[in-house]
Amino acid sequence: MSLKIKAQFLILTLALLSGCGGGGGGGNGNPSTDSNQGNNGSNTGGSTQPPPKLEQVDNTGLNSPSSNTGAGSTSPLILALKSGDPSGLSSADRPTLLKLATDLAARYQQQQNAAIADIFGENTLNLSLNHSTNSSEIGVGFRTIATPLLTADDGSGMAAIAQYGKGRGLAYGADVLSWIANQSRETQHTALFTRAFNWVLTSKAAGPLASTVKFATAAYSASDVSKMIAKQGKTAQSISCDITASANTCWQDADLLVFGSGSKDDPALTELVRKYMENGKAVIYMHLGWGDSAGGRKVLAGMGMTLGGYPGNYFAPAAGVSIGNTRTIADNIKRSDQMTALVSTLNFMAQEQPALALSQDSSPTNPITQVHNELASMQGNGINIFADARTDLYRLLVLWADMYRPDIQYGKINRDTAPGTFLRTFASDSWLAFNRSTTKVASTGQGDYMPAVAQSLPVSSSAETIEVTIAQSGGITAIGRAAVPGKPVYIEVVDAAGASNLKVQTSYVRAYGNPLTDDVKEGYKRPRRPQSFAIPLQTGTENTFVTPFGGPLYLNYSGATAGKSITLRIRGSAKYAHFDFTKPQSQAEIDEAVAAMKRKDFGWQTAKLVGGEIQQTITYANSAMGNKTPEQYIVGEIKELLFDSNHIANGYNNMPLSSNVATLCTQFGWDCSGPIHRAPGVQHFVGWIAACGFLCSGNPSDGFAGVGGTGWGHAHELGHNTVQRVMHIEFNGKGCVVECDNNILASAHMLRQYALRGIDTGHATDHPGLYQDVLSNRSSGLSGAAKVLDMQTRLWDMANGQDPMRAVHFQLGFLFSKYRAGEAKPSMQSTLDYFTLLTKADRLVAQAWDANNKGKYGMARFADNKISNPDLLFVLSSKIIGKDLRNIFAMYGITLSDNALNSVSDLNLPMAPEQFYALAAGKHNQLATGQWLDLAASTPSYPF
């Protein structure tokens, strides 16, 4: 559809851009272009220049077949709308762009709301519907094409309509057409479905259908379609036609094209469905279950819709798959309206400072975020909005955002006193296109994300070949080059090394502040989402990427082989403070990265290690590194102390086996080096903003601090992400649980750190406190089970402190040193050998259970590997230490099952006497300073 531009600006509403994007030929009539919902002359973000005259814009629809020719086709605005390059525009174009976007959104509002109102036109309609969990969600991908028709009570999409070109579409997440045609289910829904069916075919919900309706199907029952048409007294004529085949021409003979979720996945299917609608065909899609459908996704994409992720609605609650019988028609129409809020927000943005209190009501920002999410989805799926006929509105919004951005000054915008400025900044931060070559940047920098000086960093003029090391089959990893704000980066995939779904993005962060909730007194501190979307990299071509915020470049990938490298050719990028110790680095490369750190002209420092990656602000990086060399800081501190200590205690196979561990693994017949023991994944640490508290676990793990290897904070967070169940000891909801079990790994880190570096900092394992609990328990006068339970109450409760609880695992490690290593006093190495064997055995029991040789892990009396954590700790520790530890475990208040006790009895191990290795307060890491106490016959006083 091509609409002529009117002579007056106020009635334009962008016929220029509506083209094929708005559904035409519809029963909602031809919506008026005179919406009068513009800015009424107010400026749009500081410019008071009048809008350009209409002679400056093209007189044909941008998305129509003739859009590449016509008067005015060389105007800067038209060129920008076609290319995505805003460099020919100026701040004077801001009012025009915002006005055009507002009017176009209003046209879509009229068109879509009219269609929905027509379908729901009868006040007697019963809207209740239950798809059941054998269904999938139908979402809106392009709000310029698709409109929600039915949403479940929790807001999940159940059905949608589409308007594109001269045609219409209808999609349901369940096979409702069959239910209604056969009156087999949800028969109360018959009237509404019939109206939607008629609307798709005729543009009017009341019809009537033509006397004969010709149709073709793909992976759908022609009989059911015939019944649906016959129910309305019309003749159905099925046409034999493969409507999924890109070269077919028989589609032209049909009025209706019906697809099921089993439709063949043709590469051109999305474009084919779009062509069908553009040429006036009615398209219906029914999803026949909860399973995924590659062909169905392409059909829906052609209608501007999306399909829910695997496994559909299989686990959805009732509210996610049904509509209650209290839903009114007015409620449903309101739920389907997806443009009114956007139009309202655009009108607010056109006012210098509208009367808004965003701290109390931030809802005007919701439409901005919705568009942001839609842009992320499009670009994440490889769609270039400036080369797609469905994106007229999005193009206008992105170009407006480009032209507003240069004037942004982060840190100086108050959402309550300057709500208009805040809204415009929020929108400019949100409406982004990264898969193009040009954008605009905030000239004063991007707050604490990126300094203004970064914009002048030199970038490579010729392509560099860069090998990106891959540590696991899928993930996100630093490339080692940076995107400079506003400067394009060109990336070619030379060798994907078998990996699939290669994407590029800036930064790997999960916490980046929120201008809507940050302290209003501090102002709008940084871009609302400074990291880019993940943009697909196509092979066999040079991919273009640009960001207004800059940032370290990361490769997002899957389907790779761990240990290989992916080869890229990159130009237009900058070098910065990046250290990659997963491969050899020359001293010149290290010196160059150090110099970049000291210059502080780029906002970030990154590092790659085997098993871990670091991204931190340049300020935090300099603070954490101090006067140390990169080798001392990255390798000696972060790798050898933080990561290696955790990996040794967890028994991962990237750490070599000690002689004691290797000997016992052979003796036990355990596989201690196989793939079961591979580290679970690369752990990322980010020093900038924490998602929770001061430091927060996760991957990435983040914090309001630089990443350091000698404190316990990052060891604690790494422990959260790697802790195994043998460290989680719980009785009736109490015990060494979360925030204690992971700290056992942090304590192991501290023990090793002191032995290797002589650094003795914090994070005590309270051996004196543990012994005091033993003394109190022994003086209670109790015996047998009552005595064990008394000790359990005293010790295993976080309310009493976790430090004594954590000491128990280390006391077991000390017993290993005594009995297996033959040491008079425990050493760090032998104590960590115990942890290595314990965690290896934990994984072996879980993943390599030997039903024919259960004694291999000391569990002969257990039918399977479903064993409690205390039992697991007891059985494995007894086997590893070589002693029956039941008296030790009773001394620590650990109750055990008969299966555990009898399994250890079957091992015929000598009984371990009650012993305790005493360490003075504050000497928990200085093992040589302690002494053994024999508690079998007496209860000696603590010697320190």
TrEMBL record:
Keyword ATP-binding in annotation: no
Query: What range does the record give for the signal peptide?
Result: 1-23
Q: Domain Peptidase M60, which positions?
A: 474-803
The record, for Pfam families, names:
IMPa_helical, IMPa_N_2
Q: Where are the transmembrane segments?
A: none
Stretches of Low complexity bias are at 30-48
Q: Where is this region: Disordered?
A: 26-77
InterPro entries to which the protein is assigned, alphabetical: IMPa_helical, IMPa_N_2, Pep_M60_3, Peptidase_M60_dom
**Record keywords:** Signal
Cite the record's Polar residues compositional bias ranges: 57-76
Protein's UniProt name: Peptidase M60 domain-containing protein
